[in-house]
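#struct-pred
JK: can someone run the complex with fe (ii) ion? inputs below
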Amino acid sequence: MPTILQLSDLHVEPRGRLAFGRCDSAGLLESIRPWLVQAAEKVDAVVVTGDIGCDGNEDAYRIVKDVFTGLSVPVRMIPGNHDRRVGIEAVLGDFIEGRLEAVPGRQDQLLDIEGARIVLLDTLQPGKHWGEVPDAVLDRLEVLLDEAAAQAKPAIVFTHHTPLHCGMGVMDEDFGNRKRFLSILAKHPSVRLATGHMHRAIVQSAGATLIATAPSVACPIAIDLTPKGGDEFRLETPGFALHHWKAEPEGVAAGWTTFFGLIPVQTSFAGPFRFKDVVNPTE
Ligand SMILES: [Fe+2]
Ligand SMILES: [Fe+2]
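RT: done, structure tokens with the ligand placed:
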């Protein structure tokens, strides 16, 4: 049964520069490489859901490339609001394959692995902090999920941005085409939506659709359910999500189980610090 490891929000900066002035995200990512090599051996694919860098810097992407190259399973990456597609293309192109090409230039992808369909949607809107999925991409998503259902094949959709609000005011933003996106997922309640961007393990439901948001590798967010909440982080332990499809005996139920875990590296838990000097690249 398929198992997918998800990492999100690496926020890697070039060597010598701290993410948001506080976090050695390059050193942090490099320190998890031994764990990542071993973890990849027990899954069918590794997915990185955006905010790979902090401002699209290609030196940062080269550090990411080194850490994710040579794993034993396919690795796929989609951009977040802190990324630049052109930079990802130039440095991390090995991790973008099976493009949907529904909208030229976007990095939407399909990865069919043994026993599962993985759809990766690019929600980046250059210059903006929030995401969208264009109609042309949703048209393709609808077909891909219908096909998977017709073949009784488990399907999972990955995005950087998450379409629901969660109560942390600063992070509760627009999501373009939210209603149509959720209505397509609603037709397939066994499909899991796996997101990032929130820097915290979160589970939400939209009708029968379950949305699992992976914790971040860098800068876990301070939970603050106020209008000003969502603008601070601590140097907590990096985390991951693991999505595993399991069919219950006798056909009682079948679906995705999502585990959240911590990556065993030393961190200080210092903070909270502000997400300052936030960059959403405009190209
Ligand atoms: Fe992020
Ligand atoms: Fe983000």
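RT: quick notes.
Residues 51, 80-82, 160, 197 surround fe (ii) ion (ligand 2) (CB under 6 Å).
Residues 3-274 form a domain with the Purple Acid Phosphatase; chain A, domain 2 fold (CATH 3.60.21.10).
JK: thanks, will look after standup
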